[in-house]
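Mods, move this if it's the wrong board.
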Amino acid sequence: MDRNPAYLRAIKEACPNLDVSSARLHATEGQFNDILFINDDLIFRFPRYEESIHNFLREIELLQNLQGHLSLPIPDPIYFSPGTRSVGTVFMGYTMLAGKPLFREVLNAITERSTLDTFARQLANFLHGLHTLSPAALGLDMPVKDQFAEYKIFFSNIQECLFTFMRPDARNSIADHFERYFNDTSLHGFEPAIIHGDFGGSNILFDENRITGIIDFGFSALSDPARDIASVSTFGDSFFGRICGYYPDIESLLGRAKFYRGTYALYEALHGFRNNDRKAFESGMEQYV
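Not the wrong board. Structure tokens:
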């Protein structure tokens, strides 16, 4: 189905002064958003699921309030859809940031040590800067969720929705992973911080020798900064070691980061199961079947 006309109508209605000379959907569908390129220099994001609209609107507010407070460029949603909460009409639009995604295979192909060190320093400084910002000082009302209760619910959903598709030893390994977390009280306490929430290579932009921007704050929350550390740990031990050298007191986060890292594939599989997304389901379940 061609969604361009409907999206363009929504943009025109909310932004009547924007002159649209070209529009094209991103060739590959995003997991949670459709991406429309306008005039080859603007990106418009449209959430694909009704249940994600609330967080999408919070993301717009967060991005607006974070402007000027971080060490790397982030999206600035100068275009957005006021007063609507329906799929197909809710959007944000911003000037495209420079650079291309820093996927792990791209990072692994970089051999220049000074470039790797620059990347690690920039990413560590960005995360530490984000994690030490005060939501109240930024004018943000960000409640702290009961993370322990959320992981209890998440594990229950895994058992209900995914266990039937898994090998018996995989089920046992997952159960052990969660039970160790539930029973180890040292992993439950943390100082809540603003986190990115999805700090993977697809959301980190770079050019030849520097990081140029950070995108997609859709999973940002007031939560455990170790969740962002878990994300960068997936880049491999060598590069992660470089990051650890620049992020102050990172050792205090590593135990919790290890638990979070062990849940990533399960989140993807559960999303695929619930949204009939076969690709996401199979990718998340790959190591468990």
